[in-house]
Amino acid sequence: MKTLKLFFLLVILILITSCDTSAGSTEPSEIRYKPGTYTSSAAGFAADIKVTVTFSEDKITGITIDEHHETIARNTVAFALEHIPASIVQSQTADVDVVTGATYTSKAIREAVNHCILQAKDEHNSF
Prior knowledge:
alpha+beta, Sufe protein. Chain: A
């Protein structure tokens, strides 16, 4: 019985140490942007949501919601209007989780920011 436990422990250790940790690397790639401020809009729940995104050469530096007609009385919408832009700046991608209860608002912000990212991508990059 002791030998069997030792065998399984050895197998587990081999499996753990043989895993390739570089495959799931979350290091941001070195994307280059045209520094500046870009605006775009996308359809939210009530109407279009207009955003302004500011870029440096290598990152998203800020996002503001310029105009929206979403119902702020709902806590989830108010949270999404603050949380989604902050999450995008922190993660440097518009591919962030939506806020439950504010799905249309969240998706509209992500879509508008994606439009700005496309505008700001440096055309000299080889993608």
